[in-house]
Design goal:
With about 280 residues, the protein is α+β, with helices and mostly antiparallel strands. It folds into 2 domains: about 5-115, Chorismate mutase (Chorismate Mutase Domain, subunit A), CATH 1.20.59; about 140-280, SCP2 sterol-binding domain (Nonspecific Lipid-transfer Protein, Chain A, 2-Layer Sandwich). About 60% of the residues lie in helices and about 15% in strands. The protein contains 11 helices and 7 strands. Helix 1 crosses helix 5 (about 135-140). The radius of gyration is 23 Å and the shape is globular. The structure holds prephenic acid. Prephenic acid binds near residues 39, 50, 51, 84 and 91. This is Ubiquinone biosynthesis accessory factor UbiT.
Length: about 280
């Protein structure tokens, strides 16, 4: 390997490591907010703050996952110690891991650790605690491109099986249409090859662009394509004829032929994404 090539590859690997680190921090911040909520709910319902059984359960779950993804048990255990200690600190408990726990006078805590009064309803607060799509984007980009493509191809194969069979997707043969998820900064270029819609590495002739939530609302049939295009939540660029044909197909997708389990999952996912977006915007869903 030439020295320049190695340095270039190292820079790319380091950039990927940076994105994973961003993801770790964002997820820890989300966990901390959820722990604060758990703390408020426990004090409201008179449940003791520290729950060693639950901690044990949390550790057991993560150890099983660590094993599956080949992360050393010791690494997973240290990370969970840190996360649980942070959660306890957020709830006003000083934890000496493995040795006990002491309640702390909230007035003695730094402001960031104090719990705000429990007033607002739980669901929007819970949703707001989750990172918005823009924050999830770095995590998704860590997923190897090949995996992203395979997942998308498998999902499309299930959703579009009927139109592929009855020929209504023939207009896509040899044409390239991109789906862009604006807030996740993801883009896939699709082409019909044989009897499959494939993700290809080529410039698209037309693009359909929208946020993750709007595309999910469309896929979950909670919004129709016409409304979303009219509201400019979806945007069409490039070859108008190809884009419009794709749009019409989206309108006429035989929803009944999509497997029931997938329809339910899409519908629930879309409702959840819509509620999370409304919570982040401070609206009611
Ligand atoms: O599940 C809870 O009750 C939490 O407060 C969260 C958490 C955790 O970090 O997982 C923190 C402290 C409890 O002792 C148990 C679990």
């Amino acid at each position: 390997m030439r020295p320049g090539t190695g340095r270039f590859a190292l820079a790319r690997v380091r950039a990927a490591i940076d994105r994973v680190d961003d993801g770790l921090i964002v997820l820890l911040a989300a966990r901390r907010r959820l722990a604060a909520m758990a703390g408020r709910l426990k004090s409201r319902s008179g449940v003791p703050s520290r729950d060693l059984l639950r901690e044990q359960q949390v550790r057991r779950r993560t150890q099983a996952l660590a094993q599956r993804v080949q992360l050393p048990a010791e690494t997973a255990s240290r990370l969970l110690n840190l996360a649980i200690a942070d959660a306890c600190a957020r709830q006003g408990l000083v934890v000496d891991l493995g040795q006990g726990v002491h309640a702390v006078d909230p007035r003695m805590m730094p402001p960031t650790m104090r719990m705000p009064p429990a007033t607002v309803s739980i669901t929007p607060r819970l949703l707001r605690a989750l990172p918005p799509p823009q924050r999830v984007a770095p995590l998704l980009r860590v997923l190897p491109l090949r995996w992203q493509q395979r997942l998308l191809e498998a999902a499309m194969q299930r959703v579009l099986a009927a139109p592929i069979r009855d020929g209504s997707l023939e207009f896509m043969r040899g044409r390239r249409l991109a789906i862009e998820v604006s807030d996740l900064r993801l883009r896939w270029v699709l082409e019909l090859a044989g009897d499959r819609l494939c993700v290809v590495d080529a410039e698209p002739e037309a693009s359909v662009r929208g946020s993750a939530t709007d595309l999910l609302l469309l896929a979950g049939r909670l919004e129709d394509a016409d409304t979303l295009f009219f509201q400019r939540a979806l945007d069409l660029t490039g070859d108008t004829e190809l884009g419009l044909t794709a749009r019409n197909l989206l309108e006429r997708l035989p929803w009944e032929s999509v497997p029931l389990g997938l329809r339910i999952a899409l519908n629930r996912g879309a409702r959840f994404a819509r509620a999370a977006r409304a919570a982040h915007r401070g609206e009611s869903a």
